[in-house]
Fold:
Amino acid sequence: MLAEIRRFESAARTIADDEHLSIKVRCAALLDLSFRARKREGAAFLEAAIWRGSRHFFEGDQQVPRDVISANHRLIRAGHDRCPECRRPLPSRADLERWQALGHDYRRPAWRTTTPRP
Structure:
């Protein structure tokens, strides 16, 4: 069952991340995946896995933890185009820069976010 949950989550992530497909096509494919999950044993677990794999597609730009951004940079520098563990495509450098910008609080000077001043 765990392997099937991972397959459904991975399929949802792949669909959500495929920029060659229109938003309408991606939504239809995720719905189709969800309908197929409902027909299987453990449907609730499979549907939760689909949501986990595609949630970022529906939630839009949110802060990405700095350690995730750093890990992606390290993988890209090492020559990877996919995560060696989950086989998910790595984000582009432009996406990583955008994620870093989303995490910066522009209301406060940078020195306050790193080290306190006397």
